[in-house]
Amino acid sequence: MSTEQPPTPACDPTPAADPATAAGSAPGVDRPLDLAGIGIGPFNLSLAALAHGVPALRTAFYEQRPAFHWHPGLLIDGATIQVPFLADLVTLADPGSPWTFLQYLKAHERLFPFYVAEHFHIERAEYDAYCRWVSQQLPGLHFDHRVDAVRWDHEYELFEIDFTRLGGPADDAHAPHLTGADEDGRGLGRAYARNIVLGVGTEPYVPEPLRPLADAPNVPVLHSCDYLEHRERLLSTGHITVVGSGQSGAEVFLDLLRHRPLGAEGLHWLARTPSFAPMEYSKLGLEQFSPDYTRYFHTLPEPVRDQLLPRQWQLYKGIAHETLDAIHHELYRRALHSDGWPGAVLTPGVTVRTAGRIAAARLELHLEHTEQGTRARHTTEAVVLATGYRERRVDTLLAALDPYVRRDASERPRVDADHRLVLDPMIKGSVYVQNAERHTHGVGTPDLGLAAWRSAVILNSLLAEPVYQLPSRTAFTAFGLQPSGRCGTVIGGPHLPDQRTPLAPTRT
To answer: What's the CA gap between 231 and 211, in Å, rounded?
Structure first.
């Protein structure tokens, strides 16, 4: 394995204390961060990687987990991400970055094997390993740090960020900011920042009828995010039901099907959608995941956006053609080599009305078929819920800022074109959001393919002039009859000068 290391930054991005801090000032106030990130998933990791190329920016990112992990429960052998490898953390904004996927391959001496393999879509496990490689070498990332509260300090005109150091070795960069310890001896600290970015991710969604079973101890009802942890126990179970019609549900069903006894599969796959539909993957269809479409969607009236999103479900809730083909092939192979049809049932168009436990090892789901208007009882021994994710609530974390957040007619935060919460002018700093703005920016919000572009937009908006040159056009499709938003390379110019002080750019 190569020992080649990316270059170190020109300045220390951690919020170290200034020895010249004025008497009476809080530590760190005289040298605040330009940007503090809360959460280190792929999107904030992308932002941190691109910020590494802007020496003028002082950044730090905090994550309560001890290390980077990306959906570890779904890193099924052979499962691939649904975007090309070019949709890594940085390439689509800065292909010369030291943090590209190709640089990762070079560091691990796998460039030529990757070239020969011709894999345009890499496996999830490799994407996870790539991100972890970046996270282990990129400066300014602080794992095992839980952010507890964020406030706006009107005196200093800075955000106060209270955090708890959960474990691991002492972090010298934060030692000056430790204000004490909690009852368990963990360090309590505070940092100051001109701007913050929320990248706290999403959390597993469990439908209401199934929550009592999922929350009960020792009941085999689990979300697909925990699938690999329970896989061996599931494979030894007599009958398993998978609920959910998206890519995760399909991958779990296929993995179980491939490893169940021939002729005694004991599998049932339920879905609310009228069919097990393929994901929209035509080239022009994919242009709805472009910056052009994102800008167009943001300009639409709120009621139009709310009506449009549910109709676009096949753009992000469908199943890859390859996965559907693999499922059908496995079912056909089993029908060919057994006496009759395989013991696997696939039923779309069904909702789970209620659910309960009827015996020590039996679960009962009450189903309703939407089109037929019929109802039935379904008995199984284990349930895997591939029911997706919802945006993680940050009410407690941002409770002190809530009075300053401007909201839409549905009480959702308003988000401007630069992915910034619209705040009361009293707040001079900016609060950016990543993967929490689907209602304002559309279906591309959780898509990895827009990660680098969005990170560049955020960084450009922090500076008086853009540091990353972004394309003026990204799609052949012209969305709308009038130009949608700003074009040109100045994607993140001074949009809300009352919410932040532009920083001087350091490169073009």
So the answer is: 21
